[in-house]
Design brief:
Helix 20 links the parallel strand 11 (458-463) and strand 12 (480-483). The N and C termini lie far apart (52 Å). The protein has helices at 18-29, 48-59, 71-86, 96-109, 120-126, 130-141, 159-163, 187-194, 198-208, 214-218, 227-232, 245-251, 260-270, 276-283, 291-299, 322-331, 335-339, 343-374, 434-449, 469-474, 485-489; strands at residues 35-41, 62-65, 114-118, 150-156, 176-181, 303-306, 316-319, 386-391, 399-406, 419-426, 458-463, 480-483. Helix 13 (260-270) crosses helix 14. The chain has three domains: 18-181, 3-Layer(aba) Sandwich (Rossmann fold), CATH 3.40.50.300; 192-363, Arc Repressor Mutant, subunit A; 365-489, Trna Endonuclease, Chain: A, domain 1. Helices cover 44% and strands 14% of the residues. The longest helix has 32 residues, at 343-374. It is an alpha/beta fold.
Length: 491
């Protein structure tokens, strides 16, 4: 029986993804007997296929990329794809039972221990029996059978379809060792991936996010003064693939039929609607009638539902993909102008919207991400849950808190949480001053009145355009951290 082999070193061409590579390499080479199954899921352009193709090359695995085609054609395609790793024609298959049995048996004999089925939802759409076929294959050849080691990885971009493979009473429930979600690069990793200066990196992230695949179709980052030129040759160009990116993203999900309602929801959320009632109001629909669509979009990763960190309330709904937010706020309101190649005046009209509704919210999100990932750089080691909250205040009609971090030992929405950090994130061109610090101190006092522990709370003021002298002087004696874009990016 084959024994464990040394996991392959990650190739230099695979940027980042260190932990993902290590986990997948260990999974494919551990030598444990029997068939084991792994799930890899993630949005389009996040680099799943690239990662798995290089994994197959490194361990000598078989990689099959599924297409949107009939069951008959999919079986023929599968047979053709097996020819090279098997070393001989596999013949025609009439069903997936014989196809997968033949594949596992033949590949094992050929010394191949890994089979990747990429874009698995395409296969399952035309062959809904496939998960049950894999269940039966696992039950015959799983770890308890004593069969030689073999690994099957199922990969897909349709998040809603992939996430249900292991849920509830689904056939593959309890039969997977790996359930890996490949997300976008973090903002600092994205900056390194694009090879961008800090300002360019922020703009790229605000427009496109950290999806690796966009670099190949967009090219070099904008540079300090080239934002419009960069946009005009990509997301504002009607000939470019990214001009209709929201359509492509929705097309990935088999649960989405009529896309018009989903585009309407996206547009409402991008324009500031954060609850079903607000979305329904902007969409001209009753909130209850949107329940199904909102659930599909949440499960598909198209919308985020972020919970208030301190209050028991409905989650705040936001657009998950920066490129979709940009499309709905900039492209869609000026669609005719961009299609008629009148990009410059349309962009000039949209510049204020871009600053307030794209750059501003994105800067706030980067402040929270810095707190989650990089706060120890500023000596903040006790960081647990990080998010936002609203604090009631009779004098000021309440306060929205951009960044709040609890201690590791505190539960979200508990009555006596210990608060490690309160933060304010501002994208406005005015340098921030002592009024921002005083506001945070006032919020801390309000939270203390509600029973929360603020005895060790520190403050953070994040500013895109700097700080005035008074605040800089106050920071020398107060527990406040002043963070510009350069500090956020660690440059």
């Amino acid at each position: 029986m084959p024994s464990a082999t040394v996991p392959p070193v990650k190739p230099a061409v695979v940027f980042d993804r260190v932990h993902e590579w290590d986990d997948l390499a260990a999974f494919t080479t551990d030598g444990a007997p029997g068939l084991r199954i792994g799930i890899v899921r993630g949005r389009r352009r996040h680099g799943k296929s690239f990662l798995l193709e290089h994994l197959c090359r490194a361990v000598g695995g078989a990689y099959v990329l599924a297409l949107q085609e009939s069951r008959f054609m999919a079986l023929n395609h599968f047979s053709v794809a097996l020819r090279e790793p098997l070393g001989f024609p596999a013949g025609r298959f009439s069903d997936w039972v014989s196809a997968l049995d033949t594949a596992v048996e033949g590949l094992t004999r050929a010394g191949v221990r890994l089979l990747v089925l990429d874009e698995f939802p395409y296969l399952a759409a035309s062959s809904p029996e496939l998960p049950s076929v894999l269940q039966a294959l696992y039950d015959r050849r799983g770890p308890a059978s004593g069969s030689p080691p073999f690994r099957i990885i199922l990969c897909g971009s349709a998040i809603s379809a992939m996430s249900t493979l292991l849920s509830g009473n689904q056939a593959l429930r309890g039969r997977a060792v790996i359930d890996m979600r490949i997300g976008p690069f973090s903002y600092r990793d994205a900056a390194a991936y694009w090879g961008a200066d800090t300002e360019s990196a922020f703009l790229v992230d605000a427009v496109l996010g950290g999806a690796a695949g966009y670099k190949d179709i967009v090219g070099a980052p904008p540079g300090r003064d080239g934002l419009f030129r960069w946009l005009s040759r990509s997301v504002l160009n009607p000939s470019h693939a990214l001009f209709a990116e929201p359509d492509y993203l929705l097309a990935e999900d088999p649960k989405i039929g009529d896309r018009s309602i989903y585009h309407t929801i996206w547009e409402a959320v991008a324009n500031g609607a954060t609850t079903p009632t607000q979305i329904g109001s902007l969409a001209g629909m009753d909130a209850k009638s949107l329940t199904y669509h909102l659930t599909v979009m949440r499960d598909g990763g198209f919308l985020r539902h972020d919970q208030d960190l301190m209050l028991q309330r409905r989650p705040v709904i936001t657009v998950a993909d920066p490129v979709v937010r940009f499309h709905n706020l900039v492209v869609k309101p000026n669609l005719l102008d961009f299609e008629m190649r009148n990009a410059e005046p349309a962009w000039a009209r949209s510049r204020a919207t871009f600053s307030s509704k794209v750059e501003g919210p994105h800067f706030e999100e980067l402040a929270r991400e810095w707190t989650r990932r990089h706060a120890p750089e500023a000596g903040l080691d006790d960081i647990g849950h990080v998010g936002t909250t609203e604090v009631a205040c009779r004098a000021h009609r309440g306060h929205e808190v951009d960044v709040i971090a609890l201690s590791r030992g505190s539960l979200a929405r508990s009555k006596n949480a210990t608060i490690t950090l309160l933060g304010e994130a501002k994208h406005t061109t005015r340098p921030r001053g002592t009024a921002d610090l005083q506001r945070l101190e006032h919020i801390a006092a309000l939270l203390a009145e509600r029973g929360h522990d603020v005895s060790g709370t520190q403050y953070a003021i994040f500013s895109r355009f700097g700080f005035n002298r008074e605040l800089a002087a106050a920071a020398t004696s107060a527990p406040v951290h002043l963070l510009s874009l350069a500090e956020l990016y660690g440059t």
